[in-house]
User: Fold Kinesin motor domain-containing protein from Musa balbisiana.
Amino acid sequence: GYHKVLEENRKLYNQVQDLKGNIRVYCRVRPFLPRQSSSMSTVGHIDDGNIMIITPSKYGKGHKSFSFNKVFGPFATQEEVFSDTQPLIRSVLDGYNVCIFAYGQTGAGKTYTMSGPKELTEESFGVNYRALNDLFHISNQRKETFCYEIAVQMIEIYNEQVRDLLTNDGPQKRYPFVKILLLLFFIPLLVNTLDIHNSSQKGLAVPNANLVPVTSTTEVIELMNIGQKNRAVSATAMNDRSSRSHSCLTIHVQGRDLASGAVLRGCMHLVDLAGSERVNKSEAKGDRLKEAQHINKSLSALGDVISALAQKSSHIPYRNSKLTQLLQDSLGGQAKTLMFVHISPEADAISETLSTLKFAERVASVELGAAQVNKESGEVKELRQQVASLKAALAKKE
Ligand code: ADP
Ligand code: MG
Assistant:
């Protein structure tokens, strides 16, 4: 009886979350960095769901307003940002798939939101550490009824190629001499790329990337350090590659119901996207141009997929990029999506800020979303009441 009530309660909670819409867009404004504190901000008024941008004369002097599910100003803490993300994370333990993206131009705070600053403190932990921490915590709370296993993968997509970031033994390190020989003749063979399989066994989109079981935040931090190092290795060859590749931390959760033996699987992708800035036309040649084209292609493919989902379109164009192929099973259907769009407050970022916000609004299809919420708010209310009465019933039993 007791467990049934708990179970029922959890189902209703997820239904309430479902009715709120499966795609959410949060906007986060980075504060000025210490050495730029005297500059003027392009960000005017901010409230819970709206942000006003002050545009200079070049862009039609005046104000432009944008609406999102949530707007975090420059003083929002990592904890505050996470607290609005938490419900999504819990639903992974109930077998849902979740995608969380960080979008924005380089330097706008994507990595800060997802991982935190370079010098990590407990307070500055980003969404990915907090998410795992939460998963450990809740799975422990449920240990009487469920047995959970949590494992992570970390991959990078660069120029439409998928690479494992959790590997210690790439061919680069083991056979430096062979590598040089190969480099001369078979450059394409050297690239240690992986294939994407959709609907593969165990729900792994990249079955050949290392899948590492984790049980504590300490282990997670170690793994992330390995991932960061592997990303840095390639960064020296092509300066700051990290801003021109997508990195994806995937958390796989498998839970076995101890009473029935039924197994449920959920997974969560935490994606730090490549910088969305457009490169200067005069500057973009050769490799730089190729990178820029790949980034444009994959970010617009992602935008197309999410807006097709938001509009409940019958055709969802997953096949247009590696990124959307990778995330196919976790975008749409029962899956939940959250995009953090990041903007910088500086005046010289205004053009990127406006195009970032326009992209985000397109993704959110805000008008559609708002209409739906209104239509369904009665149901949400009803479900909330049911949750409340179940909670009361539970309290009586205890
Ligand atoms: P991106 O990953 O989008 O290129 P970063 O996350 O690296 O950007 O942020 C750029 C710089 O700004 C870093 O030094 C980072 O620590 C700092 N920063 C970003 N967001 C915040 C924030 N919300 N609060 C304080 N510092 C931030
Ligand atoms: Mg970054």
Notes: The CA atoms of residues 166 and 225 lie 9 Å apart.
